[in-house]
Input
Amino acid sequence: MIADNPWIDAVVRMLLVVMLVIGVALILIWLERKVAGRIQQRLGPMVVGPYGLLQSVADALKLMTKEDLRPASADRWVFELAPFVAFVPSMLALVSLPFTADLFVRNLDLGLFYIVSVSGLSIVGVLMAGWGSANKYALLGAVRAAAQLISYEIPLVLAILAVAMVAGTLNLGEIVAGQGRVPYIAWQPLGFVIFIIATMAELYRNPFDIPTAESEIVGGPFIEYSGIRWSMFFFAEYINVFMLSVLGSLVFLGGWNWPGGNEVGWPLQLVLIFAKTSALLLTFMWLRVSLPRLRIDQLMSFCWQVLLPFSFLAIIINGLVLVYEWPDVLLGLFSGVIALIAGWVVYRGSRRAVPNQPWTVMPARGIR
Amino acid sequence: MTIERELETIDVSFNVGPQHPATHGVFRMVLTVDGELVVDLEPVIGYLHRGAEKLSENCDYRQAIGFQDRTEYLAQFNAEQCYVIAVEKLMGLEVPERAEYIRVILTELNRIASHLMFMGAFSADLGIFGTLFMYAFREREHIQELFEEVSGDRMMYSYFRVGGLAWDVPDDFVERTRVVVQQTRQGIADIDGLLTQNEVLLARSRGIGVMSAEQAIDWGFSGPMLRASGVRHDLRRAEPYSIYDRLEFDIPVGEQGDVYDRYLVRLEEMRQSVRIVEQCLDQMPKDGPIVTAGLKRVLRPPAGEVYMRTENPRGEYGIYLVSKGADKPYRLKIRAPSFCHLSALRNMVIGHYMADAVIILGSVDIVLCEVDR
Output
């Protein structure tokens, strides 16, 4: 309890979380550009403020003062409401996201379920943006986004469900409390890998940035947006990135627990959760700048043929181990072995021989 | 590939370009797509037509060299080389050995620079967030700095002359080139390590945009595009010009003729070019004339015609030159490899996904200035 009156308490908590998240989103945009720059042997933003720290603020100001354009052929209400429909769910998900043992708005008993279901709503906004823009690129991007998000929601949920089975609860606070000594990544490595991949797909990051594919459909659903409406999409994306990274560190990396299980105070808890979140964020950024983009059919077949069977397998293994009350070590062992098998499947699958072209008549010594 | 239709759907046409990140210049392709599958493609060219061939007829033989730079703006030295050899053949000139070596060093370095540009642009088409682009441009910059020091310009070199070179190279040219070659070798290894065995690249580029050897020959393919289809044809070997008969190098050949093979062939060609440059640096005479002695200020080749073709990074670059004995070419015709490759784009793309159309276009490695001239 921050204040005695429940209403004041709720408002204060909401303000705290919203300010925290908005600040983090601005820093994230700066950090992403810096990290990408360093990986690409550039400096990244350097001009506005020390080390370009104020670059995001300058960009936000610029975007707010820009003209808010709407194509004449666009469907007015759908076009103008789309950014809000995309933005609100990402804020709603924060309601039940605990940052420390005390810093949260409401720690719901079905917190995990709530977050997953609410964050899935933002797809409606993207679809509205694509449809309302009256632009073929935007429509194609929106349809791609819908297909991708709905498909990858399933492995994401199943991966989290695997943890919920072990934890025996959907309350995020209790899930974290259950990882006092060993974080769940040790028991669920397969679930963690699936979670990372599905999260990248949920966030439209490389190699899954198919809905916004810059070199094909030039920004996809957001192609006609400018100014504040565009920046709302952008902001929602970064809040989602942050939200899912926090979720990952809560569910898999032990949240605000010190590894080994010592009780720590809230300042250290905050440091711990941000350290773990940052590790995930940097992984996402690193993968983003170094991987090419998949094709839409490969994306779908990867989801339905690789991720989904393996996430079902994770659930089945968990069920067996938990029902027969085998030792916990077996959980991690089975899960790890299956994760290795999944990696091998992808490795072999991408290298299998392409169908030979029957009309190739001049075989020559190859260079491979 | 056949396309089956089950539901009642309509085909949508997409206007990709002339302002589009994937068109590498001012090129437009009108894609007709059924969902994500491309059912028709119409390439639209001509946005960059400047009439370089006609303009060359109003310039004397030395001035026309500048148009070659502007025609093939990624492999300027190669285009210049083709033109000056054509005029030299017309006049029956013998070029000093040192000039020949310097020409070959510069053209091979330019081939590497051009292929590096391909690697960068291709990776951007594939959707890598600029990383490989930056790597490729870092390596390209080393070569570019060397070119700048030699010719005084970063883009429009105009350094080759009929009968030799405009001026001698800087004193430390050999040492500097050796350093650049070492850096380039490392850079090629970086690109190889980042991309070649990448699972996503393998999934995306194998079996895409396939051209069989016969089809490639029928469409007039040349250069890496032809070799990726499995035809061992390289003008540097088939009809050696300049000093290529003294140099040792391998001709990489692909097996499938798909996008991945085109990438591999270009990657290997860069390594071979490094080999050629190193040999040239070893064999090059320390000093000597760089221009044929006794050339007049204004060139007047005897009446006649000549066709010269060289192996450019993009393929067979040809110059057809007609002289009536005047100080200006009577007719100059450029055979542009990109134009032939682009004409087969429709056949390569149809039946593939829209995302594949982008990387197939990328794998062609077009230079629009050369296509439109």
